[in-house]
Amino acid sequence: MDRTVTFSFNSTKYEGTEATETFTFKELGIDEDLDVEALKKRGR
After folding, report:
1. Is the CB of residue 3 less than 8 Å from the CB of residue 25?
2. Exposure string (b/e) for 21-42, b if CB count within 10 Å is 16 or more?
3. Which residues on adjacent β-strands are paired with residue 15?
4. How far is residue 22's CA from residue 27's CA, in Å, rounded to a whole number?
5. Do residues 33 and 16 make contact, with C-beta atoms less than 8 angstroms apart?
6. Distance of CA 9 to the CA centre of its chain
7. 3-class DSSP state for residue 14?
8. Within 13 Å of residue 22, how many CA atoms lie on the same side as its CB?
9. Backbone Cα Rg of the chain
10. How many whole angstroms separate alpha carbon 3 and alpha carbon 35?
11. How buried is 18 (Cβ within 10 angstroms: 0-12 exposed, 13-18 middle, 19+ buried)?
12. Per-residue pLDDT tens for 1-44?
């Protein structure tokens, strides 16, 4: 199963303006074997 990332946007200024898009890691050029724990530590 492909790993995915979902981006979501919702405007508080313009009613009804929202979008959600899901991409696979491959579509975004991200290595699917990426170490998630290493990312979590980096983001702190």
Report:
1. yes
2. eeeeeeeeeeeeeeeeeeeeee
3. none
4. 10
5. no
6. 12
7. coil
8. 3
9. 14
10. 13
11. exposed
12. 788 989 999 999 999 899 999 999 899 888 888 777 776 776 65
pLDDT at 37: 79
Specify the length of the chain in residues: 44
Please give the Cα distance from 36 to 32 (Å, whole number): 10
Report the chain's terminal Cα–Cα distance, integer Å: 28
Encoded tokens for 41: 């530590």
What H or E segment, with its residue span, contains residue 18?
A: strand 18-24
Residue in the block written with tokens 């199963």:
1
Is 0.70 surpassed by the pTM of this model?
A: no
* Token pair listed for 17: 């303006």
Question: Contact, 4 vs 23, CB < 8 A?
Answer: yes
